[in-house]
Amino acid sequence: MSGCLVCGNNIEPFMSFGQMPLANGFLPEERFSGEYFYELSVAFCPNCTMVQLVRQPAAGKMFHDEYAFFSGTSAAMAVHFERFASRVISKFPASDDPFVVEIGCNDGIMLRHFADAGIRHLGIEPSENVARAANAKGVRTISRFFGEDLARDIVREHGRADAFLGANVMCHIAGINSVIRGIKTLLKPDGIAMFEDPYLGDVIEKTSYDQIYDEHVFLFSLSSVQYAFAQHGMELIDIEPQTTHGGSMRYLIAHKGARNVSGRVAAQLKTEDEMGLNRAETFDAFRKRCEESRDALKTLLSRLKGEGRRIVGYAATSKSTTILNYCDIDSSLLEFISDTTPIKQGKFSPGMHIPVRPYRDFVSNYPDYALLLAWNHSEEIMAKEELFRDAGGKWIVFVPRVRVIE
User: Fold this and answer.
1) What value does the mean pLDDT of the chain take?
2) What is the pTM of this model?
């Protein structure tokens, strides 16, 4: 039994994915023997309704100078972050000198729009190699972990912030109470925090269990976010559903009483109650669906391989680590994984040690089937890969169910 990371209540896991490597731990062959593993288990807190990992690897193991994910590799995400930035910029009065802080700014994909507009900004990115990439683009970035201590340092040097932003990063931080206290310290009295992360409701509805991996210590719902911030005198004032990452939610937070609360909050909380996101039996049913999906995918791949079909993985994503290890999919089933990220090419997938090869190896000799490991970008990818389908190639997907797309 463990203590909830938000409220301290006793929690027990409703599901274990077994021993799991680091999701972004793509590695060369000489590091196989020393590869790090931990038990990936997930729990629901009946008190604050937060869904969370029972154990998360130390932050330094996940975010470091060899971090393998760069946001700028996705054209669709570049458009999304440009729109996100424009929405924030449009709220600033022309006469003001606004200051914007983004946590986990990665390679500056969103903050560069503030830099281009001449708006004071600061990116916080703990992975040093990614922070260097952001600074190289003219985005002022520091490589530290955010919490109340750093928030006080920022206020002393730059003053308080008008906006605090985050995209697919708040769910990464086990010490969320320190982060929230930091946000409260950092924001002006009328300031606003806006962050978005994969939404628990979408994960449950789509059985997208690959959203559960080491970096995603939390799967947020409105009720859990509302509870977490209310503990520190802050208030959930609005929400904006997003299609990114297979279904995300953008949360708008302010100091309690500083702004009006949108009716969308109460409406979505009612929907969450109807979905059972605050009841333990919902997660027992989710576990059973995960097991069924796992068995169906392994059976399909084994059958196709037995028929002599070539199968290749498409996109060496963080999420794919959960899928491949939980479903016991190795190089006997997947010939290799095609990926466009140079830092991953020539390495092997975490745990299952499937070779990661350049995209040219995919297009130069199309396989019979491609397992779409980046299913949340399926529209963008399938539009790009019409030649693969014209050549008779077929896609294997597993969300919301295991099936072949011809």
Assistant:
1) 93
2) 0.92
